[in-house]
Each structure stands twice: as structure tokens, then as C-alpha cells.
Design a protein that fits this description.
It is built from eight helices and no strands. It has one domain (19-244). The chain is an all-alpha fold.
Length: 247
């Protein structure tokens, strides 16, 4: 479970970019995607290590998920919120360490879903990853290239994400509520919301570069942007994987 703020929103800079500025934003975006995909790789490694060692047994009890699992789950949620609120107070190196820690927690928390997929059909993991990657790339490109202002989506996306979180929390109390058609609809909505979040965040990151001040702030923004995009990608992957393993 993850959450992200709308901390990237800023006014667009209407001035034309010169060659130096264009080169600067290219490096800035490369830094964001390097951090984001590095975090995805760390998550995959953390999940693999958890499944390949006795660590996975600590996530379960005889009747379901363990208290340790919920500590990691809600600890990761709290870390995500705190890191975003304090993003411009940390040194960039500290922000990267928090992103690394969050990626590890998500990798461990994702293990039960991956174990279900491995048991049912391991190929669904690859299918979900490929589809999530294609959707992410298309929406990120759209958000970067479009001239349409996407800021109007912010409040609706945040409300949708809060709704998904509340449904997720409720499902811990009433697991049956995500069965059948309702669970399938939730998965589709989850994929849609985080796909749109990808475009929304990408446009805001592009705009923010034009108004953010010194290099330190740009590095801080790069870490925050990487966290936002990481959350969107991983959430799309999780919802797709859940959708493919509904049975």
C-alpha cells in the first residue's frame, strides 16, 4: 500500500528553453528515471530474497498474514508520507536512502502476492510487469509531451487513491469484500488511477524544473519525483498482478 502527495504542482514557465536548459532537464529526467528504476530493481531483489529464504514465513500465521507483515505494510505507508512531506528538508543523499528503504519494504510486503502468482501461474508476473512498463512509458511520454494542463486531475486522483487505500484497509477486516466482480473493478480502477498519476506527475516534474532554484533543490525534487513515479509503477504492477490471479 502506498500514498503520495501532490507536492510537485507548480506553475508552468512559459519562456523558451535554450540549449543549455534543455540539456539540464534531460539530465534531470535521466536522474529521476535512474533512481526510480533502481528502486524497482531493489524491490524485485528484496522480494526474491524474501521468497528464497525463511523470511517469507514471518509474514504468515496459521490463519493469515502476521502482525509483522502489517507492521511493515503500515510502516512503509508512514515512511512514504513522511518522506514526501519532508522531501525538501533532507539532503539528496538522505532522500535516496529513504527511497532505498521504502523500496525494500515494498519488496517484502509484495511477497504474499508474488507467492500466489508463483503458485497459480508464474508467467503472470512477467505479463503484469511488461504491461505495467508499457503503460508507464506511454503515460509518462504523454505527460511530458502534452500541452494540455493536467492539473485539474490532481484532486480527483488523490480522492481516488484515498478510496483505494480505504478499500484496502477494509479488506483486511472483511477479506471477502474484494472477491468476485467488485474486486475485479477495484483492480481496473487502481490501474487507471496510477496510470493517470504517471502522466500528471510527469507534467509537474517537467514544469517544476523551470522554477526550482539551485542544484540542491533540483536533486531533492528528482528524488521526490522518482518516489512518485516508483509508487505509480509498482501500484500498476500490483493491481495488474492481482487482476491476473483473481481465481
Amino acid at each position: 500500500m502506498a500514498v503520495k502527495s501532490i507536492a510537485l504542482k507548480t506553475k508552468a514557465d512559459t519562456s523558451k528553453h535554450d540549449g543549455k536548459k534543455t540539456s539540464g532537464i534531460d539530465l534531470y529526467l535521466k536522474r529521476i528515471f535512474a533512481l526510480m528504476f533502481g528502486a524497482v530493481g531493489i524491490t524485485a531483489l528484496a522480494s526474491f530474497i524474501t521468497m528464497a529464504t525463511p523470511l517469507w514465513t514471518t509474514l504468515f500465521t496459521a490463519t493469515g498474514l502476521s502482525a509483522f507483515y502489517y507492521i511493515l505494510l503500515f510502516g512503509g505507508l508512514a515512511l512514504s508520507i513522511w518522506a514526501q512531506v519532508r522531501a525538501f528538508s533532507f539532503k539528496p543523499s538522505t532522500g535516496m536512502l529513504l527511497l532505498l528503504l521504502y523500496a525494500i519494504l515494498i519488496g517484502i510486503v509484495m511477497t504474499p502476492l508474488l507467492l500466489v502468482a508463483v503458485t497459480n501461474n508464474p508467467y503472470t508476473i512477467l505479463s503484469a510487469f511488461i504491461i505495467a512498463a508499457i503503460m508507464f512509458a506511454c503515460m509518462a511520454l504523454f505527460g511530458y509531451k502534452t500541452v494540455k494542463d493536467l492539473s485539474f486531475m490532481g484532486i480527483f486522483l488523490m480522492m481516488g487513491m484515498i478510496g483505494l487505500i480505504l478499500i484496502g484497509i477494509a479488506s483486511f477486516i472483511w477479506p471477502a469484500m474484494l472477491g468476485g466482480t467488485f474486486g475485479t473493478i477495484v483492480c481496473f480502477i487502481g490501474v487507471l488511477i496510477f496510470a493517470l498519476f504517471t502522466a500528471y506527475d510527469m507534467q509537474n516534474l517537467k514544469r517544476a524544473y523551470a522554477v526550482v532554484g539551485d542544484e540542491t533543490q533540483k536533486n531533492q525534487l528528482a528524488v521526490l519525483g522518482a518516489l512518485h513515479l516508483y509508487i505509480s509503477f509498482v501500484a500498476m504492477f500490483q493491481y495488474l498482478l492481482s487482476l491476473f490471479n483473481r481465481n
